[in-house]
Design goal:
2 copies of one chain form a homodimer. By secondary structure, chain A is α+β, with helices and mostly antiparallel strands. Helices cover 58% and strands 12% of the residues of chain A. In chain A, strands 1-3-2 form a 3-stranded antiparallel sheet. In chain A, β2 and β3 form a beta hairpin. Chain A is globular and about 55 Å long. The relative contact order of chain A is 0.14. At the A-B interface, α1, α2 and α5 of A face α1, α2 and α5 of B. The structure holds a DNA duplex (30 and 30 nucleotides).
Chain lengths: 112, 112
DNA sequence: CACACTACCACGCGTTGCAAAGTAGTGGTC
DNA sequence: GACCACTACTTTGCAACGCGTGGTAGTGTG
């Protein structure tokens, strides 16, 4: 993959994961699959699982283990209050950066 | 600064720098100052200069040195054809990721 | 038993943003 | 002429992160 696209996605993963979990309790494998349908958000398990571990360690996620109908047990994650706060903050940061960049990009004559 | 905001900005810097130079030949110190007015795009020199070096090494930028009226000589950068191509590609990647994430964020009930 | 799918984990590499500190040139103040 | 402030670029070192590769374990199918 383009190295700069990798960089672009960096820092967006965490927000994407939080957004996925904010929709309702879910587990890692499912997050990977659900994000894959969004162009540019196709992360692999080796990206998502560490993010989940990190967010859990930071107290943003609570885990619940439940047996799977086919395969190993699933680890269901949901947002803690801290997680919800983090989500809101990241979302705000994203909007700020996103809007600033859009402004910068549209200031010159590009295809509209 | 928030660690996740740092991550968010990662990968956006290069695009911001390319966008700045695409507006016309300019130099590092000026880029830093011009980006500072955009909220969320306030990078320091130790971030911008390495980016310029990297882009130049990759053949995306051409340099011209000119004396400054006050201070050391300025290194003026402009986009090469490769740099313009890179800019278009990154811009496209940005739009893709940006739109996917917006979709994801708006799918749940947030403040509209 | 071989294969495929689900689901999670660990190692290691390369890239990167940024703080800190430095250097060099010009101009102004006392 | 010592001191500061501003301009402008550079170097060093750290910590964080995405992801490729390769694994383990559970269930079902042929």
């Amino acid at each position: 993959m383009n190295p700069w696209e990798t960089q672009l996605r960096k820092g967006v993963v965490e927000l994407a994961v939080l957004a996925s979990i904010a929709r309702g309790e879910t587990y890692g494998y499912r997050i990977v699959e659900s994000l894959r349908v969004h162009e540019g958000l196709a992360f692999t398990e080796s990206t998502i699982y560490p993010v989940l571990t990190r967010l859990t360690r930071d107290g943003c996620l609570a885990v619940r283990v439940e047996a799977s109908p086919a395969g190993p047990s699933r680890r269901y994650y949901r947002l803690t209050p801290a997680g919800e706060a983090r989500f809101r903050e990241m979302r705000k940061s994203w909007k700020t950066v996103s809007q600033s960049l859009s402004t910068l990009l549209e200031r010159q004559g590009g295809e509209p």
